[in-house]
Amino acid sequence: MLRRRIIPLLLAALVASGLTAVFTPSATAVGSAAAGVCDTAPDWRQGVWYTTGNVVRYNGGYYIAEHDNPGYSPTISTWYWDPYNCSGDGGGGNPDPSGFVVSEAQFNQMFPSRNGFYTYSGLKAALSSYPGFANTGSDTVKKREAAAFLANVSHETGGLVHIVEQNTANYPHYCDWGRPYGCPAGQAAYYGRGPIQLSWNFNYKAAGDALGLNLLNNPWLVERDAAVAWKTALWYWNTQTGPGTMTAHNAIVNDRGFGETIRAINGSLECNGGNPGQVQSRVNKFRQFTQILGTSTGSNLYC
Predict the structure, then answer these.
(1) Is there a single domain that holds both residue 69 and residue 179?
(2) CATH number at residue 16
(3) Which keywords accompany this UniProt record (predicted)?
(4) Which of 27, 40, 289 is nearest to 148 (CA)?
(5) DSSP 57
(6) 32, 60, 97, 185: which has the highest count of C-beta atoms within 10 A?
(7) Are 80 and 129 in the same domain?
(8) CA-CA distance, 110 to 76, in Å (whole number)?
């Protein structure tokens, strides 16, 4: 059996040659999930890109992606996939979205003036889309990731006040007609929406494809459905590197620091001295939220 110590490059070479080892699920499976997560898990498909935390069905069992991969078989190696226990009692950390590391009272404390659109129940409903979020590693890391995500969200939306981008003059700029699918909802339809202000037609297309929603044709769904809005934010956090070199999720769970989450979200404008005031604002909020959750910030706070 190939184990985690085998480096990804070697595994990729083995995939190319067809010489891959196979394992079978055991009682010591690392992952664990509530039945609801597994009920919505898709069947594994070859060639589909999977990101850390994705759960799939395969040969009657469930597997969680331990590292990003381009559709490798769930039985290739525990570097990429681990068996996932859907009974909810496997001891794999925080398996049930209803056991989210942020309580509703803490959420309200973080966002005392939030817009009523951004509900706690909407956030919890979105968690099953990315079960690895705030559910990977130690309790310290889980709470740190939740604090990091919510700190950036707070900065992007003025404390969960703004649902849509405030500068309407920018609205027509977010259509790239060079894409084969164009902008079917209209030139000015792809403005920033939601907790991380999803914008551009190609981002609506990618997020919608990942979430099983037709956001390219109906981008307004992000500003009308709280769960969808939160799902798009989690999509970006867990799958997109933006101007950085890693996803915000990987930055926290791999101990690369809060600064790398800033880089993934708005690094081209804020990092490397671009706008230290904005960076400091994010860091201040992160420190506040980690205190509320009773965890530590870790190192590398700045970018």
Answers:
(1) no
(2) 2.10.10.20
(3) Disulfide bond, Hydrolase, Plant defense, Signal
(4) 289
(5) E
(6) 32
(7) no
(8) 42
- Asked if residue 2 is part of any domain, the answer here is no
> Which domain, by its residues, includes 232?
96-303
Q: What is the dihedral angle through the alpha carbons of 104, 51, 144, 193, rounded to the nearest 10 degrees?
A: -50
pLDDT band at residue 63 under the 50/70/90 scheme? confident
CB 47 within 8 A of CB 103: no
pLDDT, mean of residues 102-124: 95
- How does DSSP assign 248-289, residue by residue? HHHHHHTT--HHHHHHHHHHHHHTTTT-HHHHHHHHHHHHHH
Residue 224, pLDDT > 60, answer: yes
Instruction: Dig out the tokens for 151 from the structure.
Output: 């700190």
Token output for 58:
């395969």
CA distances from 131 to 222, 235, 238, 266 (A): 20, 11, 10, 24
> What is the number of other CB atoms lying within 10 angstroms of the CB of residue 44?
22
Residue 138 resides in a domain: yes
Tokens of 162: 């703004």
Catalytic site includes residue 260: no
- Cα 278 from Cα 269, distance rounded (Å): 9
Both tokens assigned to 82: 């681990």
**Could you give phi then psi for residue 205, rounded to 5 degrees?**
-65, -50
Residues 57 and 175 occupy one common structural domain: no
Tokens matching residue 299 = 């190192």
Kindly name the residue from 66, 145, 156, 270 that is annotated as catalytic.
156
Paired tokens of 13: 């070479």
| Last residue in a domain, options 47, 62, 85 | 85
Question: Same structural domain for residues 75 and 125?
Answer: no
The sign one gets for the Cα dihedral 117, 223, 246, 9 is: positive
